């Protein structure tokens, strides 16, 4: 399968997926990595892995619709079977999401439906949660609201800092994201009527 990864930053999840492809744990190939930030370190990771890279910055576009149309054309040019959002820090318009319906995955650093949006680790600590985690989900028009495929849980200990919790969650992200990508590439995982199905069964 042809995988395209959208990033904005460090790209540690991208790295986990690149490694999984290279080691044969994912029956797919990352055909391109697209960033909306030219300085994203993930681009360096992509080049090191021999992937095509593209940068499409929002500056210069009249509005979100214009940017998303250009991004959509760029993405479509690679004929991806799957679009993996890995720390892509832009909200995508319904028009973009409709274009790639059922073919987009995202990872969100919380146990969805808890803590949608930003600063999830800080908010989980402040809420006094003893558990936190990450969720891989299909992307639908509802921000951080698409059907969850797989979650990983981590404890929050007394006195934990935001950085400690973030690091603990990231270790789990790097385990669950390649796994979900592998299921999709094997054809075991699909989204139908905005529900995730694994081996034909609702998740
Ligand atoms: C991850 O924590 C992910 O959950 C969130 O953004 C972060 C990206 O990290 N969506 P990286 O760029 O993959 O290192």
UniProtKB/TrEMBL annotation:
<comment type="function">
    <text>Catalyzes the transfer of a formyl group from 10-formyltetrahydrofolate to 5-phospho-ribosyl-glycinamide (GAR), producing 5-phospho-ribosyl-N-formylglycinamide (FGAR) and tetrahydrofolate.</text>
</comment>
<dbReference type="GO" id="GO:0005829">
    <property type="term" value="C:cytosol"/>
</dbReference>
<dbReference type="Pfam" id="PF00551">
    <property type="entry name" value="Formyl_trans_N"/>
</dbReference>
<dbReference type="InterPro" id="IPR002376">
    <property type="entry name" value="Formyl_transf_N"/>
</dbReference>
<feature type="binding site">
    <location>
        <begin position="89"/>
        <end position="92"/>
    </location>
    <ligand>
        <name>(6R)-10-formyltetrahydrofolate</name>
    </ligand>
</feature>
<dbReference type="InterPro" id="IPR004607">
    <property type="entry name" value="GART"/>
</dbReference>
<dbReference type="GO" id="GO:0006189">
    <property type="term" value="P:'de novo' IMP biosynthetic process"/>
</dbReference>
<feature type="site" description="Raises pKa of active site His">
    <location>
        <position position="144"/>
    </location>
</feature>
<feature type="binding site">
    <location>
        <position position="106"/>
    </location>
    <ligand>
        <name>(6R)-10-formyltetrahydrofolate</name>
    </ligand>
</feature>
<dbReference type="GO" id="GO:0004644">
    <property type="term" value="F:phosphoribosylglycinamide formyltransferase activity"/>
</dbReference>
<comment type="similarity">
    <text>Belongs to the GART family.</text>
</comment>
<feature type="active site" description="Proton donor">
    <location>
        <position position="108"/>
    </location>
</feature>
<protein>
    <recommendedName>
        <fullName>Phosphoribosylglycinamide formyltransferase</fullName>
        <ecNumber>2.1.2.2</ecNumber>
    </recommendedName>
</protein>
<keyword id="KW-0808">Transferase</keyword>
<feature type="domain" description="Formyl transferase N-terminal">
    <location>
        <begin position="1"/>
        <end position="181"/>
    </location>
</feature>
<dbReference type="InterPro" id="IPR001555">
    <property type="entry name" value="GART_AS"/>
</dbReference>
<dbReference type="InterPro" id="IPR036477">
    <property type="entry name" value="Formyl_transf_N_sf"/>
</dbReference>
<keyword id="KW-0658">Purine biosynthesis</keyword>
<feature type="binding site">
    <location>
        <position position="64"/>
    </location>
    <ligand>
        <name>(6R)-10-formyltetrahydrofolate</name>
    </ligand>
</feature>
<feature type="binding site">
    <location>
        <begin position="11"/>
        <end position="13"/>
    </location>
    <ligand>
        <name>N(1)-(5-phospho-beta-D-ribosyl)glycinamide</name>
    </ligand>
</feature>
<comment type="pathway">
    <text>Purine metabolism; IMP biosynthesis via de novo pathway; N(2)-formyl-N(1)-(5-phospho-D-ribosyl)glycinamide from N(1)-(5-phospho-D-ribosyl)glycinamide (10-formyl THF route): step 1/1.</text>
</comment>
């Amino acid at each position: 399968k042809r995988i395209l990864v959208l990033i904005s930053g460090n790209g540690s999840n991208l790295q986990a997926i690149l490694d999984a492809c290279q080691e044969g744990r994912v029956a797919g190939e990352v055909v391109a990595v697209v960033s909306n930030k030219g300085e994203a370190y993930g681009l360096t990771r992509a080049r090191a892995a021999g992937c095509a890279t593209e940068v499409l910055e929002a500056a210069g576009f009249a509005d979100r619709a214009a940017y998303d149309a250009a991004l959509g054309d760029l993405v479509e040019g690679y004929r991806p079977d799957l679009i993996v959002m890995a720390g892509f820090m832009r909200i995508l318009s319904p028009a973009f999401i409709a274009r790639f319906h059922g073919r987009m995955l995202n990872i969100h650093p919380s146990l969805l439906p808890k803590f949608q949006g930003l600063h999830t680790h800080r908010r989980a600590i402040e809420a006094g949660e003893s558990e936190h985690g990450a969720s891989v989900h299909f992307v639908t028009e509802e921000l951080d609201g698409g059907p969850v495929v797989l979650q990983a849980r981590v404890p929050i200990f007394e006195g934990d800092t935001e950085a400690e919790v973030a690091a603990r969650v990231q270790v789990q992200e790097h385990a669950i994201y390649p796994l979900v990508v592998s299921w999709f590439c094997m054809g075991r995982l699909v989204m139908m009527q905005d529900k995730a199905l694994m081996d034909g069964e609702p998740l």
